């Protein structure tokens, strides 16, 4: 196999060469650059010489700590409470800025919880990165199953020989053709909190009962809004992949199923779904990778806000590398992202392996 | 059209100079600039300038990429507050022109870093409170003047009155969706008027005390109240509102730049441009717009300087101002314009820019500081804790200054 592929297939390799060369120049090489840069303090523009800093950038991004805040007490040792009866705690900054705790210097609160009278605070060197990490995972966890199954349903719907089916195929596929930047701009209008299309429709459907929501301006709705729009935009692409998979399944299997008297569900369960196995793996891996690369929607629609509710890893990498001229920091995020996606793809591959 | 003709027929003996410009897509600006270039190329036989225009959003990235690749043009267009960053990084060389040639230029139009003149602007920009005279009369508000601007109480009373009238979607539009340079340009003067600043300008080595001191905390609380109180739309505002929201009557007041002045005057008969309110430490507005400089790699700095001097003639300064409403940098050019001559509708800006405009912090670190400031203001507007947010911003700015070896400040 190997010798046939490498030796008897010169023409094939010659044809593949330009593609491979481009991938090496624009993807593989820059990635090795990124690993190298992440170990330095390289800036985008600076007259200062670049220095090797080891794992300092990784420590800056991933550093975590837990601080226990004890309630403030008055001279008599009583816990101080405000008018509302809430226990008063010292400001975290008094600890993170104190000379007594140099290890917490520059760290900020990520989240906190109550533990008896005390408060436990998880602090991070880079809170925004941590939030970006969580948001990115959330995005993938929601988008991958929803988009994948929606696409499959659409593919099943349009996999019929009915007159005019091409019209539906076109309609479902259309959002994929439009640039994501344009789509994001348009959806900003749809999501507008004052007189956006979505609010108008919901108000019309509920006869004015629905209170307008500022979809992109509210920390609890901003990320779901971006998810919904992203699912809609790319669902057509995966629908086409599913469709290709569906059409690869031999019609004789369906004929056999029909003769055996299989119900619609049984046909799907025992003929269609097993036949789509490789397609399913491909769709899942592709959606996961695209989900981790979430950037354009954020850049156009929310800038990571409000209150970091839509920060993502790629947006942070770009913001840091170009916006804040910290190329080494941006590279470090890219390397971490690569490691994450690689680990997840390998796990997916292992979970869906032939058994 | 003009551009394509002058690009095609350079005279043979002329040495070619290249120039990059940020204003791709802006028709009036391009027409005026192309006119200057073709006039310059025809006026002498030594140099021929060609322009390449970039969209504003990607201009700075293009320059950074070109610098890394060693492909900078001879003449660079640079945003005033970014200039120290580029000068420090070695993209620009000091202008080979005597500074006295620009003696009567507004201070905001001269880019000086490390004691040397690096760039000169053909206009300055200013921000004002756009309002209708009829609105002021209806709500019974005093018209503020440069000498007697609104105080904080008067501003809030005006916003309250506008809100109570029920005629507007919001009392005030700040253009909050534009989270690029607009935040530090338009809103840091509020902070400065409270008595704070983005960074401590006496040393440029820390933001401690400037961005999180008492004045800054007061500013932050006031800033948050604008959004908590429903006076102004927040960060998810419709981008079109900064162009047409005021004209359509959605807002009673709008904090906007004078580059929107001409278009607004055409649509709204009784528009008035009010000076910034005084929050205690004087009324301040930003200064410093796009400027021309010579790239460090240029082999013909004297030719580039010739062009910049040529472009800085009063007639061109006046043409830019008439075209887009920007402030002409010299008093003599101002007298040649429709809007800025004595008694003109925008004349107040010229004096304001001369007297009270404050350039953004002149330091290579400004680029990062502006980003941090923008995020802090967006977060505060969205309800983040004021003290914590400002403290975190200070930490980030200080860490950046330290990791850049103090950005060359001595």
UniProtKB/TrEMBL annotation, chain A:
What is the protein's membrane topology class? Multi-pass membrane protein
User: Where in the cell does this protein reside?
Assistant: Cell membrane
Q: Which residues form the ABC transmembrane type-1 domain?
A: 133-348
> PROSITE patterns under this entry?
ABC_TM1
Taxonomically, the superkingdom here is: Bacteria
Name the PANTHER family for this protein: ABC TRANSPORTER PERMEASE PROTEIN, INNER MEMBRANE ABC TRANSPORTER PERMEASE PROTEIN YCJO
Q: What is the protein named?
A: Sugar ABC transporter permease
> Organism source for this protein?
Mesorhizobium onobrychidis
Upper taxonomic lineage: Bacteria, Pseudomonadati, Pseudomonadota, Alphaproteobacteria, Hyphomicrobiales
């Amino acid at each position: 196999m190997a010798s046939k592929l490498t030796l008897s297939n010169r023409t094939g390799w010659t044809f593949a060469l330009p593609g491979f060369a481009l991938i090496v120049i624009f993807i593989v090489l820059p990635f090795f650059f990124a690993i190298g840069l992440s170990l330095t303090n390289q800036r985008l523009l600076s007259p200062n010489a670049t220095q090797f800093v080891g794992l300092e950038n990784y420590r800056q991004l991933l550093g975590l700590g837990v601080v226990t805040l004890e309630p403030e007490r008055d001279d008599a040792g009583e816990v101080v409470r405000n008018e509302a009866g809430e226990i008063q705690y010292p400001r975290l900054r008094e600890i993170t800025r104190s000379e007594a705790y140099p290890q917490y210097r520059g760290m900020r609160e990520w989240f906190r919880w109550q533990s008896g009278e005390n408060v436990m605070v998880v602090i991070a060197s880079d809170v925004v990165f941590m939030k970006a990490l969580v948001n990115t995972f959330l995005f993938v966890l929601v988008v991958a199953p929803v988009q994948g199954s929606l696409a499959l349903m659409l593919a099943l719907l349009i996999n019929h020989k009915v007159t005019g089916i091409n019209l539906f195929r076109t309609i479902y596929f259309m959002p994929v053709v439009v640039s994501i930047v344009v789509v994001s701009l348009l959806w900003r209008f749809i999501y507008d909190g004052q007189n956006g299309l979505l609010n108008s429709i919901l108000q019309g459907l509920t006869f004015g009962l629905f209170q307008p929501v500022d979809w992109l301006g509210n920390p609890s709705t901003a990320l779901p809004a971006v998810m919904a729009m992203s699912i809609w935009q790319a669902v057509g692409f995966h629908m086409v992949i599913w469709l290709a998979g569906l059409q690869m399944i031999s019609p004789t299997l369906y004929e056999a199923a029909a003769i055996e008297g299989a119900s619609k569900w049984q046909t799907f369960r025992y003929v269609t779904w097993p036949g789509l196995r490789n397609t399913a793996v491909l769709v899942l891996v592709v959606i996961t990778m695209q989900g981790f690369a979430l950037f354009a929607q954020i850049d156009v629609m929310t800038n990571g806000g409000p209150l970091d509710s839509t920060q993502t890893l790629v947006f942070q990498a770009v913001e840091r590398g170009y916006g804040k001229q910290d190329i080494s920091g941006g590279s470090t995020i890219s390397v971490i992202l690569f490691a994450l996606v690689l680990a997840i793809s390998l796990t997916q591959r292992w979970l869906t392996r032939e058994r | 059209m003009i551009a394509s003709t002058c690009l095609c027929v350079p005279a043979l003996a002329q040495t070619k100079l290249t120039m990059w410009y940020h204003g791709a897509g802006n028709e009036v600006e391009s027409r005026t600039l192309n006119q200057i270039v073709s006039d310059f190329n025809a006026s002498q036989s030594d140099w021929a300038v060609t322009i390449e225009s970039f969209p504003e959003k990607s201009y700075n990235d293009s320059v950074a990429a070109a610098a890394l690749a060693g492909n900078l043009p001879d003449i660079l267009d640079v945003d005033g507050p970014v200039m120290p960053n580029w000068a420090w990084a070695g993209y620009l060389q000091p202008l080979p022109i005597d500074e006295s040639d620009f003696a009567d230029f507004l201070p905001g139009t001269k880019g000086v870093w490390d004691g040397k003149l690096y760039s000169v602007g053909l206009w300055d920009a200013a921000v004002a409170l756009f309002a209708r005279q009829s609105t002021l009369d209806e709500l019974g508000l005093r018209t503020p003047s440069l000498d007697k601007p609104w105080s904080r109480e008067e501003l809030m009373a005006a916003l309250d009155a506008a809100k109570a009238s029920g005629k507007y979607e919001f009392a005030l539009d700040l253009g909050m969706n534009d989270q690029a340079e607009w935040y530090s340009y338009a809103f840091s003067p509020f902070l400065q008027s409270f008595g704070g600043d983005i960074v401590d300008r006496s040393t440029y080595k820390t933001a401690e005390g400037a961005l999180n001191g008492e004045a800054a905390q007061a500013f932050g609380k006031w800033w948050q109240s604008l959004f908590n109180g429903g006076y102004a739309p927040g960060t998810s505002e419709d981008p079109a509102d900064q162009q047409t929201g005021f004209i359509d009557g959605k807002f009673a007041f709008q904090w906007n730049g004078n580059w929107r002045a001409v278009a607004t005057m055409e649509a709204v008969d009784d528009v008035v441009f009010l000076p910034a309110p005084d929050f205690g430490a004087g009324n301040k507005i930003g200064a410093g717009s796009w400027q021309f400089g010579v790239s460090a790699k240029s082999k013909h700095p004297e030719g580039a300087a010739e062009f910049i001097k040529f472009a800085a003639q009063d007639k061109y300064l006046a043409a830019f101002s008439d075209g887009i409403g920007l402030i002409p940098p010299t008093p003599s050019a101002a007298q040649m314009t429709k809007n800025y001559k004595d008694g003109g509708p925008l004349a107040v800006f010229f004096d304001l820019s001369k007297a009270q405009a404050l350039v953004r912090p002149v330091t290579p670190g400004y680029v990062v500081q502006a980003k941090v400031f923008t995020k802090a203001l967006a977060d505060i507007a969205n309800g983040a804790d004021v003290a914590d947010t400002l403290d975190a911003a200070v930490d980030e700015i200080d860490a950046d200054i330290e990791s850049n070896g103090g950005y060359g400040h001595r």
